[in-house]
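Technical note accompanying the year-one report. For the benefit of new consortium partners, we illustrate the data format agreed upon in the data management plan: each record pairs a sequence with a structure-token string. No post-processing was applied to the example shown here.
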Amino acid sequence: MRKEIEQAVALLEKNDPRALEQALELLQGTVFSFSMKVCGQREDAEDTMQEVLVKALPYLPKFESPRALLVWLYKVAKNRCLMSRRKSKFAPKRDLSLDELMPDRHELARLAEAGPVNPEILAIRSQQAKRLREVIQELPPQYRIILVLRDMEGLTDEEVGDITGLRPGNVRVRLHRARLFVRQKLARQNRSAVVLGKTGSSSHPAPATSEKRPASCKALFAELSNYLDDQLDDSLCEQMEQHLEGCEPCVAFLASLESTISRLRNAPSASLSKALAAKIRRELLRQYPYPLPPNDGN
């Protein structure tokens, strides 16, 4: 649960004009930030935010539960974003295949050889906020929504399920594949940047290969997100850790996935200009002057 939603509901309970405007300000920021991550375009995000709040304002007194308001806001914003956003020409046209998102022997070997992340790589990563946004836009919509809600908005599997209509198990599957997609794209970019940055070096990216990864590693790859999110039962967790103790490449791959998730969770949120936000609130409150229609229980 986002604390902004809980704060907004508490403000609405005060039944006060100033508290209503403060609640709207909190909701503006939440909807705009989410819409920017999904839509990728400021104009689309601004339009989505305004449309969602126009729809929400007359009904705000009816939302006594922060969870009910959260699900309603995100569901309406999600639908509006997917209808209006510009289509990415880079997005895959089909479902993401788990097998295609996993590393082959060459990448596992590179990860094991690379060892700890060095300052050069960190410097490259610090400049990749724009690339991270671009990669998220390359995700098919059904995966992008899950990734944004779960890793960037900080919602639970159950909340994401309520918003998307998916069962928690399906949320977990799509979340894992979305994370792997982002990890794969960023890893390729990082590798290319490092190679290009080594002036005078004869190094070249490893050629594409279809060589399969070890079967013992492959069996664990589908559970990596569950392991990192503490979603494995004790017996599976023990099996995972026993394998990791003797498999340096898998340890390196797990670290790269964990780093990707951390970057998603710590990605900065876009903000609406204060002047524009205040203007939109004034327009909204003119359309629905205080007091709002009472909660009639319907």
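Partners are asked to follow this layout when depositing records. The chain is about 70% helix and 0% strand.
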